[in-house]
Amino acid sequence: MANILNGLIVSKEIKQEIRAEVQKIIANKRRPPHLAAILVGNNAASKAYVNSKVKDCEEVGFTSSLVKFPATVSESELLEKIQELNKSKKIDGFIVQLPLPAQIDQEKIIMAIDPRKDVDGFHPENFGKMALEMDSFLPATPFGILTLLEKYQIETQGKHCVIIGRSRIVGRPMSILMGRKDFPGNATVTLTHSYTKDIEAHIKKADIVITALGDPYFLKADMIKENAVIIDVGITRVEDNSEKGYHLAGDVDFDSCQKKASWITPVPGGVGPMTRAMLMKNTLIAYKTSVYND
Ligand code: GUN
């Protein structure tokens, strides 16, 4: 039976540490950190994510602002708002919730964010620094996974890590981070994607599997190696007959995999709450390094 990598417990500890730091900041008569979020359109999952970020800010003692635009917003309006947030002395970090509508060039938007306020770690300057093992903001989900591995002292050195999915938010940065000269890191990494041939042959050889596919219950026990470490980043809304009308499903068939794995993340309560906590951590880092925080 696998041990649980409990993101709920670890994220609570991290948020408590952040809250304690914020209380000291306030006791010293300084303003608390401020995170802003830009939300475009009506995507239900995006709205839920952004609302939970606002709630997390309240919990740790940050102030926050939510800037909403209709799905019809123009690229120039969005760029103008980003410039305003870049210049604001009261905002330490901000995120632009992805995905954006088709008329908006996502790369142009991300490039416009001041890297010092890019608490998502999506700007090429931060991404490049991450790849070169320089100090930078790390994207929240990969940062959360690294923190979980570190807290539970999961050995990664020399291990074979198979990552499923090469998104800019999870798979690609994760593939870089697991190969860095660090702990957690020093792994041999295989980054698989939609063109990978015989993905199951790769997964079967993995000591660590990190799946960010968005395909509910894709990973079954017969696909993994005995004692593998299984990290499930998938969170898909699956419609059902419940009051809510849906439940959240991971990429992993937890019930079968937990019998074979050594460590496993549940969904919910695994990577999701870690992502949220690490965004708070990045915002605190942005605040501490900001030239405007006094
Ligand atoms: N959409 C899904 N995950 C994320 C995230 O971590 N940051 C942003 N900005 N958008 C997302």
UniProtKB/TrEMBL annotation:
CDD domains named in the record: NAD_bind_m-THF_DH_Cyclohyd
Species in which this protein is naturally found: Elizabethkingia argenteiflava
Function in brief: Catalyzes the oxidation of 5,10-methylenetetrahydrofolate to 5,10-methenyltetrahydrofolate and then the hydrolysis of 5,10-methenyltetrahydrofolate to 10-formyltetrahydrofolate.
Domain Tetrahydrofolate dehydrogenase/cyclohydrolase catalytic: 5-120
One GO CC annotation: cytosol
Pfam families recorded: THF_DHG_CYH, THF_DHG_CYH_C
Protein name, per record: Bifunctional protein FolD
GO BP: L-histidine biosynthetic process; methionine biosynthetic process; purine nucleotide biosynthetic process; tetrahydrofolate interconversion
Species classification: Bacteria, Pseudomonadati, Bacteroidota, Flavobacteriia, Flavobacteriales
Binding of NADP(+), residues: 165-167, 235
E.C. number(s) listed in UniProt: 1.5.1.5, 3.5.4.9
GO molecular function, one term: methenyltetrahydrofolate cyclohydrolase activity
Annotated keywords: Amino-acid biosynthesis, Histidine biosynthesis, Hydrolase, Methionine biosynthesis, Multifunctional enzyme, NADP, One-carbon metabolism, Oxidoreductase, Purine biosynthesis
UniProt family annotation: Belongs to the tetrahydrofolate dehydrogenase/cyclohydrolase family.
Annotated ranges, domain Tetrahydrofolate dehydrogenase/cyclohydrolase NAD(P)-binding: 139-289
Subunit and interaction comment: Homodimer.
Reactions accelerated catalytically: (6R)-5,10-methylene-5,6,7,8-tetrahydrofolate + NADP(+) = (6R)-5,10-methenyltetrahydrofolate + NADPH; (6R)-5,10-methenyltetrahydrofolate + H2O = (6R)-10-formyltetrahydrofolate + H(+)
Pathway(s) annotated for this protein in UniProt: One-carbon metabolism; tetrahydrofolate interconversion
PROSITE patterns registered for this protein in UniProt: THF_DHG_CYH_1
Stored InterPro entries: Aminoacid_DH-like_N_sf, NAD(P)-bd_dom_sf, THF_DH/CycHdrlase, THF_DH/CycHdrlase_cat_dom, THF_DH/CycHdrlase_CS, THF_DH/CycHdrlase_NAD-bd_dom
